[in-house]
């Protein structure tokens, strides 16, 4: 059984930083692309960032480019999302996800991801 557990969310002020973590179990973590998505109240879930199985390729949504950094530590079965210069528009529940098949490239399509965490709330006050 695959499990993804996010942590690191919280309430911060505009301009602050947070680092989210997601630890996986139940499959060979290092073989799969990982992604971060988010969903704000009243909005659809949207792609934030993705990272290939070996960390060699990353992808970001335009609103977070140059502010967020995705990374992974395959020895720890963990993917991270470093979020800097946070804005109120970043307020959302953040979900990590694991790719549907071995070796996929990071994608903004949520259909490319088979497993999801329960989410962690990030709230940015103005």
Which structural category fits the helices and strands? mainly beta
What average pLDDT do the residues reach?
96
Helical proportion? Answer: under 10%
Stretches where pLDDT is under 50 for at least 5 consecutive residues are: none
H and E order: EEEEEEEEEEE
Choose one word for the global shape.
globular
Instruction: Measure the end-to-end span.
Output: 40 Å
Count every helix, treating DSSP H or I runs of 4 or more residues as helices. 0
Radius of gyration from CA coordinates: 13 Å
State the oligomer.
single chain
Would you give an account of this structure?
The chain has 126 residues and is mostly beta strands. Helix content is 0%, strand content 49%. It contains no helices and eleven strands. The strands form two sheets. Strands 2, 4, 5, 6, 9, 10 and 11 form a seven-stranded mixed β-sheet that branches. The protein has a four-stranded antiparallel β-sheet with strand order 1-3-8-7, with no helix packed on it. A hairpin with a 4-residue loop joins strand 7 and strand 8. The protein is globular, with a radius of gyration of 13 Å. The model has no long low-confidence stretch (mean pLDDT 96).
Question: Which features would summarize this protein structure in a list?
Answer:
single chain, seven-stranded mixed beta sheet
Topology of helices and strands:
Layout: E1 3-7, E2 10-13, E3 18-25, E4 34-39, E5 46-51, E6 58-60, E7 68-73, E8 78-83, E9 92-99, E10 113-116, E11 120-125
Parallel strand pairs: 2-11
Antiparallel strand pairs: 1-3, 3-8, 4-5, 4-9, 5-6, 7-8, 9-10, 9-11
